[in-house]
Sigma 54-interacting transcriptional regulator (Anaerobacillus isosaccharinicus), 471 residues
Amino acid sequence: MNNYQEHSLDILSTILDSAYEGIVVVNESAEIIHFNDAYSRFTGIKKAEALGQHVTKIIENTRLHNVLESGIPERGSLQIINGQEMIVHRIPIRKDGRVIAVIGMLIFEGVSELYKILEKHQQTDRKSIIHSNNLVIPEEKRKITLEKIIGKSDKIAQTKQLARKAAKTLATVLITGESGTGKELFAQSIHHLSPYCDGPFISVNCAAIPDHLLESELFGYEDGAFTGARKGGKPGKFELAHEGTLFLDEIGDMPLSMQSKILRVLQEKEGIRVGGVKPYRTNTRIITATNKAIEQMVQQGTFREDLYYRLNIIRLHIPPLRERKEDIPLLLSYYIEEICQKYNISTKQLTNKALVQLLSYEWPGNIRELVNIVERMISLVEKKEISASDVSLLFNQTSITLQPSYPMVEKLEIDKQTSTIFLELKAEKKLEEREIITNALKETNGNKAKAARKLGIHRSTLYDKLKQFNL
Ligand SMILES: Nc1ncnc2c1ncn2[C@@H]1O[C@H](COP(=O)(O)OP(=O)(O)OP(=O)(O)O)[C@@H](O)[C@H]1O
């Protein structure tokens, strides 16, 4: 080996060791040739012990040797290591057409993207998901209804009420809201409460399918429709969702050419497979969702107006979590319990200070982000109680900024006393707001128009606030 090659190998080892993910590489004989520091820390196995060993001797439930044989990459799989469900990627490395090594990556975090993989995995392969107590999740438990949507705020209560009404009709429903607010959860609830509840619920993420495959995914294809087409053809989602619900997620990402095809099915209740001539009937309830400003897209001509009107018969907007902060304690409490159960550990509690910190955060990733944070708190904090410094540490690691300065009270059990603390927070916020408004009025010598401009709010909002604060 020359100097240059040796130097490159050194660099490679350093890179592997500084990676946050656990990385292991096996050679053609399934012997471990790289075992990075992160993997070693997580498994507690020393690098020297692992190197040169057959991978099955070192890593629990590994499939790297299988991937070596099959040459088929496995991404986003679940693997139980040290009693925990971990997300792993297994990627074969080829040279001259031969698999010469396989890289295994163990993902500890990666927040939303990885959680999405996990969710996708759970949705497509729910039957094979085993609970920590080794029971397959029963059918009724998997059925999502509005009762499973957590939240007691007025905003969420109103949204649930509208969803309940929508479920009774067969009208199309357009669900809008930021990412992670629960649009899919609402879509599933509507399905389970609707006249189509005995039929299938088929979900398609329009943004995840490449444009050229979207038509065959949605409408199916006939035998020999294109190179690589499956023998005997394949039914599309409209056929599969017959007498059920088709949920088209991220509809704002659908190309214009497909939009006209969707419009046709909605109007004619018939679809045609790619390469086919005979139309099939499809009696399907359509629910769509988007986190894009769809009205703006209509104005800009990137979303068909006629389709928009067809889809927007009932509109359900899911408010972001920051607009319904009173739901945060309930969600935290629910997910702490659920995740502790999943890991088979006794329930942990948040100290009051920790809860206050979490309440002051804006949650841009909404409930999906909250679930991630809870999962990370549970896995990283070993004590029974999660403190404010644990929360700060966790947020610092993810470069998320918490807002400080809320009144602190001693420890509390979140499900019992959160409403009180929330009221305290509200009162504190109001006092702050009142003071800011009084100062603005002082500085502008009582000129309300100027004060509103200074505060960056509309004049009518200022009048409302003045009334509210008796100013
Ligand atoms: N009100 C809620 N109660 C309990 N869990 C919720 C609630 N809302 C959302 N979740 C959970 O948050 C995660 C994200 O929800 P969901 O996938 O429905 O969001 P979404 O708005 O469809 O996201 P995206 O726009 O990114 O597709 C899921 O794990 C879901 O179970």
About this structure: The longest helix spans residues 414-443.
